[in-house]
């Protein structure tokens, strides 16, 4: 195996990696924000809203990400939604992730002791204040492991964006592979790279988790 | 504008292609159960070496995107002299990826059983082999059914990725359909509907099994 190709295509791969990270972070942030919105709307919305949101959740969770991307990127222009690959990919990640995040937040909200919320009402907090000062801070901490876990799953989904030509790390690897006929080496290197990357962020995630849930552990 | 007839016309070729989606995910989970069982035995064994091997297997397969793994297998097979159709690479990748998740599901299910079960089996004089086949495994398998169905649903969705190596499953067929009719919206919408139908059926099956096998 010729290692010099990696130095020649290094800058490309590096820029692809940068874009992968950006897609992952933005996709996670937007997806979590939309998911949070859905979870709050499900809690406070009426029956029709709850039903509509549940349908949305089932629809998105029941279909592959790749098909959702194709619908958005190739089908979108037919209904006037013309997006470049990167915005389409980010929107796709956001939509794909939102129902999973929504379910995480929903179960986290359910785990908030009702007594806290009743206490909030009793001292005259408004509902938005209860969401902001009780539901979110308490719920987010218990949701953290699941949030970290799903965001790690999302890192792996970002490679699918290469299929709609977002120039992230998979796309750049493909480019290198095609130019130099190093398919196996290229993809295998990418696999090893992802392995390390995912291991590192899951360790960091566990550390963050311990740091934030420190106050929950009883001191002996 | 949305054309209903194009949308409906897309269903026939896509339903034909759904056979490959079901083949890849069905065979994938079947082989995955076998390999996963083996990996689970390694992970639970007393030997440190086999535990490490199992841990590496699981961490690699869960850490690397399936699309990358698929391409590694797809390009690796010819290099090591195995010249097989793309569908074999697709099934192989699906099976080994599934095996990592399944071994974790089973390990979790076995560890979740109260220790008293094994102790009781030994106390009434069962051989270790029998305590496994009659006490632990039946309960662990029943416990793991919901998660296994969940895994199967994930595999159905993941099987859309094998369109990349040219297997004519639902996603690939919808691409072809979009290319022929120049109407991607209808073609991909039809594909989405089919996946949804398959997954809703599987979810219903899962609920039924869970109800029947409740311990």
Give me some keywords for this one.
heterodimer, A: 220 residues, mainly alpha, 9 helices, flat, B: 215 residues, MetI-like fold
Number of domains of chain A: 1
Q: Tell me, what's the shape of chain A? A: flat
Name the helicity range of chain B: over 70%
Backbone shape of chain B: flat
Helix fraction of chain A? Answer: over 70%
Structural class of chain B: mainly alpha
Q: Name the CATH homologous superfamily of chain B.
A: MetI-like
Q: What is the second-level CATH architecture of chain B? A: Orthogonal Bundle
- CATH architectural grouping of chain A: Orthogonal Bundle
The CATH class of chain A: Mainly Alpha
The helix/strand series of chain B, from N terminus to C terminus, equals: HHHHHHHHH
Question: How would a crystallographer describe the biggest sheet of chain B?
Answer: none
Count of folded domains of chain B: 1
Structural class of chain A: mainly alpha
Average pLDDT of chain B, rounded to a whole number, is: 91
CATH-assigned homologous superfamily of chain A = MetI-like
- Mean pLDDT across all amino acids of chain A: 90
- In what range is the share of β-strand residues of chain B? under 5%
The residue ranges of chain A in which pLDDT falls below 50 over 5 or more consecutive positions are: none
Task: Tell me the span between the first and last alpha carbons of chain B.
Answer: 52 Å
Oligomer: heterodimer
